[in-house]
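Q: Here's a chain of 103 amino acids. Please give me its 3D structure as tokens.
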Amino acid sequence: MAIKIIQEIRASEIKADEIIKHAQLEAESILSNASLKASKILEKAEGDARKEYISIINKADEEAKVESLAINKDNEKDIKAIKHVAQENMDKAVNLIVSRTVS
């Protein structure tokens, strides 16, 4: 009877060892899969971030181009106005010199 109990205990220990070994293998598999999924999520997030970064940079670049065109148009108007005033002053100076020379 005692031998039978010892055999049953031993069988239970063997079964428990198998369950522990199986659980450890399953835990390692779960950790490996989780690590792989985390790597894929990180890779996707980095790719998405790169795309968003490029999109933001392109949008800012386009906005800057539009703004610079508007500034350039305003500057061209100012340049034309300054040139016009300079030409008028040049004409007045020439007329003044001519009228003094003639008089």
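Q: Can you summarize the key feature?
A: The chain has a mean pLDDT of 92.
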